[in-house]
Specification:
FERM/acyl-CoA-bd_prot_sf, fatty-acyl-CoA binding, single chain, lipid-binding, ACB domain-containing protein, globular, 5 helices, Acyl-CoA Binding Protein, Acyl-CoA-binding_protein, 68% helix, mainly alpha
Length: 104
Amino acid sequence: MSQAKFNKAVKIVQSLPKDGPIQPTTDEKLCFYQFYKQGTEGDVSTARPGIMDFTGKAKWDAWNSVKGTSKEDAQKLYVEKLLEILKKADNEEAKKYIAEIEAA
């Protein structure tokens, strides 16, 4: 899996409209987050957020759950997760994104 495929996948995820036909679930968004952070920064290196920061804790826990995964594997998993969501969506926009990733 190439860096270009990962970069293209990140751009696609970041560009998905909030009210568009392809809507990742909250769990899928956390999955993207954990693999993105692991794939770009490596293992989590910050303290777990405080008790009232529910979103921060969920993100930290998700990232921490993939501790030890190589950056390359995390990037591959990120792309695979996006392709899984796009194939499930099965619409023209999804097909266009799949072609873009495969061409990268």
